[in-house]
Write a structure and sequence with these properties.
Length: about 650
């Protein structure tokens, strides 16, 4: 066999693959390379007694290219303790007197998820590479089979109908944790359904994006609801992010069941031609408006063109839905996640222009009262002295042009005390439309600007957006503020995800059709607010639980109403299918409307949030996490909220308080 050589880019891509393994078999020493003092799965290095070398064998599929590099299926992956220090520290490895024995006992008989790491080999064996590894996690699941099948999941939040449409229309499918260096998956999870790919050529991987796939024979893909497999979640091993593993034996049972009962997704999907026909119906000649799904495509297209990388569901669609259904949304997160850029991108997608119908107000730490952003009345001159922000003039212009959209962006909103300088707006934004009037000075005061004397109506053509960092330099949002808005935390993608080339849809998005107040507030809005029984029950349980620990917080009627409005207005595609599953949207709302209020010292919040044991790197769930776990019907539910609680537990343990 002619062995190939790979470039650094391919090496990095292989490093993003996940393999399930086990400790090498000591009963077959011939497969263990002679790098240690003896040929055992864990031993001391023959070069240095202080370094421990250990070996793993794969029990799931490996990247296809490794075969071309000359790697045999039984050939071991090798690593040293100093190259897995992060994981080993979490299990107190370095405190052990007998490290070899400790590592053998810790890894023996367990399933180990790892990433392969290729390094150049400089010996006379004829092999080009060492097959090293990095441990991701060691599962409590015992090794009970010799072969396991990887089951990737479509990225969180994507409804089954969207996945099936993408298959039928040969548009991109994202398997975020399953790079195309692996074999085409035989099973795929999405939104409570399991999909069966009986042949390798049914899916085709992308040449540009290593986690993107296309269906070339979608009519051969079969689906079944997970409810038909009562033992499915019990059979899933070593679940991590959007991946899980099942034994080859259980995979055989699944194949048999699909062959007997599975139905083709082609029986339930419309064709691409029908969708194109529907798109044509939104023509300028007929004087129709921009559809909401076309606006989402415009937002995604603009982000790609400007080189901005955001999660589609949790950032773009979530932010749009929160702002559309609420009077204000705040983008939070660590510095550099693109909070301000997303707000400006959204304004651009709406067709707003700076200093015309987009106002950017940079907040100063010196802002302590409303006059700092509005201005004040000079009683001696009878003249209103407007603040340098220009906010009053902007609001006047918005009132004069009620049919057009306007946006105010409060950048770095919590550098000042929001509750103080923003106080006139807090209650106003909750009032009925006809009662929203901003009074900037007393009606009895003498002022020559008569237009301002009666106040400025705040109409629903104004969008209020804020950006916020949460660190020692900023102020906390009050519960009163948090009760009235969504706080959306933008997460930094991995550098691997960010630097992978993003594919553009073949369809050109609508760049010209303008979005006015009527489109935004009427055409894209469902006026009914609906919460399902299980959602109401969970909100009641959360309220009762939180109130036991802090009587000043909980789930108010205002919050519940806002959540219902959000869930009733998830954007849909041309067939009326939601772009984000309702369960995922409910998860976002619990995090953004309820968990943001969980703040305080360890003594007050530890039972609610849980604890994080720094030495063992283990999270002990608190009461809220346990409640959410009890409500779950599959592994993906409330994933965002549970991760948020995990981070809060870390913060509580390290700092003694949580923000």
């Amino acid at each position: 066999m002619t062995l190939i050589e790979i470039n650094d880019k391919t090496k990095r891509e292989i490093n993003n693959c996940y393999i399930l393994g086990r400790l090498a078999d000591d009963s077959d020493p011939n497969i263990i390379p002679p790098l240690g003092q003896d040929r055992r799965s864990v031993t001391k290095s023959h070069r240095n007694d202080c370094i421990i070398v250990f070996y793993l064998q794969a029990v799931s599929d490996e990247p296809k290219i490794l075969n071309s590099l000359g790697k045999e299926p039984k050939e071991c992956y090798v690593s040293f303790d100093d190259r897995n220090s992060r994981y080993l520290q979490s299990i107190k490895y370095y405190e052990q007197p007998d490290k070899v024995q400790f590592l053998r006992e810790h890894l023996s008989g367990k399933l180990i998820l790892f990433k392969p790491k290729l390094s150049n080999r400089n010996d006379n064996t004829g092999h080009r590479y060492h097959y090293n590894f990095e441990i991701v996690l060691v599962s409590d699941d015992k090794v009970d089979a010799n072969d396991y099948i990887t089951i990737p999941q479509v990225k969180k939040g994507v409804p089954a109908v969207r996945f099936e449409k993408a298959c039928m229309e040969n548009t991109p499918i994202q398997l975020v944790d399953y790079p195309n260096h692996m074999e085409i998956p035989e099973f795929i999870l999405c939104d409570g359904f399991l999909y069966f790919i009986p042949e390798q050529d049914i899916l085709q991987s992308s040449a540009q994006n290593m986690t993107t796939y296309y269906a070339t024979k979608p009519e051969l893909i079969k689906k079944l609801p997970l409810s038909e497999f009562t033992e499915f979640w019990d059979e899933i091993k070593c679940a991590y992010r959007e991946l899980g593993f099942i034994s080859a034996k259980f995979a055989g049972k699944l194949r048999d069941h699909f062959n007997t009962h599975g139905s083709s997704i082609g029986q339930q999907e419309t064709t691409r031609k029908e969708e194109k026909d529907r798109k044509k119906s939104y023509s300028i000649e007929e004087n129709t408006t921009l559809s909401e799904v076309d606006f989402i495509e415009r937002l995604k297209g603009l982000a790609l063109e400007e080189g901005l990388i955001y999660q589609e569901e949790e950032a773009l669609i979530n932010f749009h839905t929160a702002l559309k259904t609420g009077n204000m949304a705040v983008l939070g997160g660590m510095s550099g996640t693109g909070k301000t850029q997303l707000a400006l991108l959204y304004a651009k997608a709406l067709g707003l222009k700076k200093d015309e119908n987009l106002l950017i107000v940079p907040i100063s730490p010196s802002y302590t009262e409303p006059t700092d952003i509005l201005g004040y009345l000079n009683h001696q001159l009878g003249i209103f002295m407007e603040s340098e922000t220009g906010l009053v003039s902007f609001l006047e212009r918005a009132n004069e042009e009620k049919t057009e959209l306007f946006m105010v962006l409060f950048d770095e909103m919590n550098l000042g005390q929001v509750e103080h300088y923003f106080s006139p707006f807090v209650s106003l934004l909750e009032l009925p439309q006809e009662q929203r009037k901003l009074q900037i000075f007393s009606q009895d005061a003498v002022c020559y600007n008569r237009k301002l004397k009666g106040g400025i109506p705040i109409n629903n053509n104004i969008l209020f957006v804020g950006t916020a960092n949460f660190d020692e330099t900023t102020k906390d949002f009050s519960n009163r503020m948090l009760d009235r808005m969504n706080v959306i935390f933008l997460e930094k993608l991995t550098f691997g995800e960010a630097y992978v080339a993003k594919e553009k849809d073949n369809n050109e998005y609508d760049r010209e059709t303008t979005v006015n107040r009527n489109i935004y507030r009427n055409d894209w809005m469902n006026k009914e607010e609906h919460l399902e029984e299980n959602e109401i029950s969970l909100l009641d349980s959360l309220h009762d639980l939180i109130r036991e620990y802090d009587s000043q917080i909980g789930v108010s009627f205002r919050t519940a109403k806002g959540i219902g409005k959000y869930l009733s207005n998830i954007p849909c595609d041309y067939d009326g299918n939601p772009l984000v599953t309702r369960q995922t949207a409910f998860d976002y709302q619990i995090k953004q409307r309820i968990l943001t209020k969980i703040r305080g010292h360890r003594e007050q919040m530890q039972e609610l949030v849980g604890t994080f044991e720094l030495e063992s790197n283990r999270y002990q769930q608190g009461l809220i996490a346990r409640l959410l776990m009890e409500e779950r019907t599959d592994e993906a539910e409330f994933k965002t909220s549970l991760n948020f609680l995990f981070q809060k537990a870390k913060e509580l343990t390290r700092n003694g308080y949580v923000l």
